[in-house]
Automatic annotation (TrEMBL):
GO terms for cellular component: membrane. Residues 158-184 are annotated as: Disordered. Keywords: Transferase. One of its GO terms (biological process) is lipid A biosynthetic process. GO terms for molecular function: lipid-A-disaccharide synthase activity; phospholipid binding. Transmembrane segments: none annotated. InterPro entries: Glyco_trans_19 (IPR003835). This is Glycosyl transferase. It comes from the Bacteria. Signal peptide: none annotated.
Amino acid sequence: MLDIVLVSNGPGEVCTWVRPVLAALRRELTARGALDAVGIHLVLTPCPNANGTEARTAAHFVGIGQIVPARHFCRLLCRPRRYRRWRHRGVVVFLGGDQMWAVLLAARLGYRQICYAEWVARWPRWCDRVAAMGQRAYGRLPQRWRSRARIVGDLMADTEERDSQLPTDRPAGRPRGNGSGETLALLPGSKPAKLSLGLPFLLATAQRLRECRPRLRFLLPLAPTLERQELLRYALADNPFMAAFGARPVALQPPQPGCPHWQLGSSDGLAITLLEEYPATARLRQCRLALTTIGANTAELGAIGLPMMVLLPTQHLQVMRAWDGCLGLLGRLPLVGRWVALAMSRWALARMRFFSWPNIEAGRAIVPERIGPIHPHAIAAEVLELLQHPATLEAMAAELRALRGGSGAAGRLARLVLEVADADRQLQRRGPLQRI
């Protein structure tokens, strides 16, 4: 009997990391005939990036047992048996957030711990295994801990592999877009700090683009943790950044004949189609280009090879309270939180060379990043220039596909989890696992 505890935080990680790993674990356990003997649970950790709907979203995933919301995490650490009778053996798997939370939970429950390291494993001393996304994360490990590490690959590539079987209305070989117009994807993020700033900026950009190129169409895929009424809240006049970026307020428009989706519409005729199905990969493949904020969006777009422009206006850094871990919690404190967030953001801008997943992974600029005091009209002009050079977009897409690598990361991680569980069962007493 075994418990597997998946530890995660925000909406992007729950949908793009937890979901494929959960499915892979169930496949592996079914093949072993051990599905009924293993409980798979999800623990959400405190995170300023969360929007509060992660537990409700995860409740729809097949195979999840206990779900502990983030607001109960501290109580779980203090009194774990208040929530369930945890089995004697178990494995805690870190899949997003502050890695220290997973370390503490594993120690409290007496379980083995595996860390999925996208960029860096911060506490390898207390990890039984490190599942590195790629060579970069593996190379950052101190030499003494590399015997505990294995490169499993990018979970985002599994998202693309799984969704590639979905129907698409773009015939093979035809470029993105078609003769009746071109489509752009708008991804303002799913977290409050990013939406309050990113949605007005993208609305102002889209309104300017439509003035210059009326046949352009726009799609906005909603994260499963975000409802359309919640999205609309950031696109109304009472959001001060609407006026700051010169965006005109929009309203929700219900589905109509010829358009089965809800839309965000403004008085000038702009209509942005909201994609509420998840994942929206098949529809995103129809787009020529995506305008996105920094974060998990860039990894998802890179996984499907969609050219993108990454945007972060720095005129209002004080609202970007979207940091993980303890620093993120400090950034939300009353009175001092604004200044903590501003200091952290300025530090990151001065220290980091790249902000999007493809550029960080490649170590060079594959996709354009516009970080600074940018204006929607300037971005719209740059987008129009890119649309006039389809060869540039196709070259960008080819580089993204080459960077993505093969699929199967979720399956490799699932097998590593069960390998750790088997090794733990064979040990006569607690101690370090054998080296890989």
